[in-house]
Design a protein that fits this description.
It is built from 26 helices and 19 strands. It is an alpha/beta fold. A five-stranded parallel β-sheet has the order 2-3-7-1-8, with helices on both faces. The N and C termini lie far apart (about 75 Å). The N terminus is likely disordered.
């Protein structure tokens, strides 16, 4: 432990620092009685804090007999913290590792209105909490709210949640107003809004007025019936509600985009009324390792107390567990994987009946699997939980089946699963395991499903136990090539590190090679080849692009072609397949095609593909055409209120 922890307690206060002791020395005899009293109080607070820290450090280092420690009850701790804003973020940082700055900024955001009180029923503060998916934003808000409530700084830890993506159009506006009123009237002082980018403009306008003006006017006449806001059917009704106000609550908006994007969605005035923007940091590898280590410690404790097993693991397993993190799932992926390991250990206890206190070891294999070693036996975790992995594979199979066409591509993906099963049997029989080179080239025109298949491949390979993480990291030249000499290799290596355990998808990969004079592009390719070699069993790289350009790209580096033996051609969609894609996308969006649409659509798609499939866009053409049809249908619905809301007719499609 550092010397200052045990011996420099008083130096921190009275030494050469900026503490109250130095201030008192400067003041000398001229200090007033009040000033001296203030300094004494500061010194007492400082010593009390330092003593508590020192006691904890000595106990952690085993230097303090637990029986000799002062017994402080939970009630005493709570009483000491009542009404205090101090130490909240430090206390919560142990529960949300890696997000110390987020917690600090969030506590400041809640404290701000105590110094700058709102006027009337305006919002106490408007907070924008942003960061990547799975970065802990929602957990941070819940934790801070609970701690503030425990200290009496909030009336309640309750948070009223509104998912704004549930109100995508004018048809949901009344429901939005009802839900907004319910959220404002709910217990607690916090309303949290998610999905603002997908809600209807009218709903965003109401929220913008709520933030900027402190009131959202209601265009129709509304009444309260049993606590529910309902539209009045008569103009003579009394006691109507004409506007909604925040009632002095905290309004918290979640997002993945930077604060500047709020201006384009809500208007510049809204962005100016944001009191605090709190950013969740991207998780660094070291932070993920710390989180994984904490989960393994918890796993070991549960094994000892519940299963009577002594569990051991090494740094390789910690890194394996950290590697399951994805931006889509966040830290929850690590927690879920640790829970899966516990279920496997419980299954081992039930089926093998080891003696109490038996030692078991978890180890990560190079193929991305975790195995359990005990009593001279090595058991794959996947074999202890066959039902879990069967369900994951079934889900991946369903995703693959849902893809229109691409039969040769599907056949190749399923061949990978067959090979993984065969290698698993070889491993169980004690034979050498030989995993094939799985790096791939996806060649074909835009819109032929290359990115979609890459995402399914990542999920599929994780489900069959080939990849430990299963994330898809999609990048282009701009993500790999630096802006100055010496920048490219570290940038490329950083991208490779983020993709370990999953699939690295490089779209328009041929853009990395712009001729022999492109030193930056060649440096990125060299770093990519080296990274592939260094992580051959923990990474799948997919290069995507036009067929002819990809041939030229492979000549950029002598080792490039040999590392990508699996070339998969993505054929252009036929007219029949494009119709199926159109129907599938329409179904996802809650629409259906009138039968009369099929023939003109077939003729249109056939003509477009025959003229120039690459320019037509394949699947993208179908999506763009459908989205235009939905816009045209909206105009038709205004003219004909009795028309079916979910039906698209031939006149909605622009086929000329």
């Amino acid at each position: 432990m550092a010397r200052s922890g045990y011996t420099d307690l008083f130096d921190d206060f009275f030494g050469n620092g900026s503490g109250a002791g130095k201030a008192a020395e400067k003041a000398g005899a001229k200090a007033s009685v009040d000033e001296v009293s203030r300094q004494v109080r500061e010194m007492q607070d400082f010593l009390q804090k330092k003593t508590a820290e020192l006691t904890r450090e000595m106990a952690n280092d085993g230097l303090l007999d637990p029986a000799a420690q002062p017994q402080q009850t939970a009630a005493a701790v709570q009483n000491a913290e009542q009404g205090s804003w101090e130490g909240i973020s430090d206390k919560l940082a142990a529960q949300l590792v890696g997000q110390e700055e987020l917690l600090q900024s969030l506590v400041r955001a809640f404290r701000r209105p105590t110094l700058l009180p709102p006027q009337g029923e305006n919002a106490r503060n408007v907070i924008y909490l942003y960061g990547g998916n799975g970065s802990g934003r929602h957990s941070a808000l819940r934790m801070v709210a609970a701690e503030l409530a425990a200290r009496g700084l909030l009336q309640s830890p309750q948070i009223a949640q509104m998912q704004l993506s549930l109100y995508p159009g004018p048809a949901q506006e009344k429901l939005f107003l009802q839900d907004l009123y319910s959220a404002i009237s709910a217990p607690g002082q916090i309303i949290a809004f998610d999905g603002w980018a997908e809600c209807a403009p009218s709903c965003r306008a109401a929220l913008s007025a709520l933030v900027q003006k402190g009131a959202a006017p209601l265009n129709s006449r509304y009444l309260l019936q049993k606590g529910i806001l309902v539209e009045s059917g008569t103009a003579l009704a009394g006691g109507t509600v004409s506007q909604l106000t925040p009632k002095g609550k905290y309004l918290v908006f979640f997002g993945t985009q930077k604060p500047e994007k709020l201006a384009s969605a809500f208007g510049a005035g809204f962005a100016e009324h944001i009191g605090d923007s709190c950013a969740a940091a991207a998780y660094m590898p070291e932070t993920l390792q710390t989180i994984a280590a904490g989960e393994l410690n918890r796993l070991a404790q549960n094994c000892r107390s519940r299963l009577e097993l002594e569990l051991s693991a090494d740094a390789a397993l910690r890194d394996w567990l950290a590697g399951v993190y994805t931006k889509a799932e966040g830290v929850a992926a690590i927690v879920q994987q640790a829970e899966r390991l516990y279920r496997a250990l419980a299954e081992y206890k039930l089926t093998r009946s080891p003696a109490a206190g038996a030692k078991v070891t978890l180890r990560a294999e190079r193929q991305g699997e975790a195995v359990l070693e005990a009593q001279g036996e090595t058991i794959a975790i996947t074999s202890l939980l066959p039902g879990v992995f069967a369900a994951e594979r079934a889900q991946a199979e369903a995703e693959l089946d849902a893809v229109v066409g691409l039969a040769p591509v599907k056949e190749y993906v399923r061949a990978l699963a067959d090979n993984a099963a065969a290698q698993s049997r070889r491993r169980a029989a004690g034979l050498p395991v030989a995993m094939p080179n799985m790096h791939m080239i996806f060649a074909g025109n835009p819109g032929t499903g290359k990115t979609t298949i890459a995402r399914i491949v990542a999920h599929y390979l994780k489900a069959i136990g080939v990849l430990r993480g299963g994330q898809l990291v999609e990048v282009s030249r701009a993500d790999l090539v630096g802006r100055y000499v010496g920048h490219t290799a570290p940038l490329t290596n950083s991208v490779i590190q983020s993709a370990l355990g999953g699939v690295l998808f490089i779209d328009e990969a041929y853009s990395l090679f712009r001729g022999r004079e492109d030193s930056f592009g060649l440096e990125a390719i060299d770093a990519l080849v080296k990274g592939i070699e260094d992580h051959r069993e923990d990474l799948v790289v997919v290069l995507a692009g036009y067929s002819r350009e990809m041939e030229q790209f492979l000549s950029a580096n002598s080792g490039l072609a040999s590392r990508f033996p699996n070339r998969i051609e993505f054929p252009d969609y036929t007219a029949d397949e494009l119709i199926r894609i159109t129907e599938s996308i329409a179904k996802e969006k809650g629409y259906r095609l009138d039968a009369a649409c099929l023939l003109p659509l077939h003729a249109y798609y056939e003509q477009q593909q025959a003229q120039n499939a690459a320019a037509a866009g394949n699947g993208r053409m179908a999506r763009n055409l459908l989205e235009k049809a939905i816009l045209n249908q909206s105009r038709r619905l205004i003219a004909d209120p009795n028309a079916a809301l979910d039906e698209l007719q031939p006149s909605d499609f622009e086929l000329e």
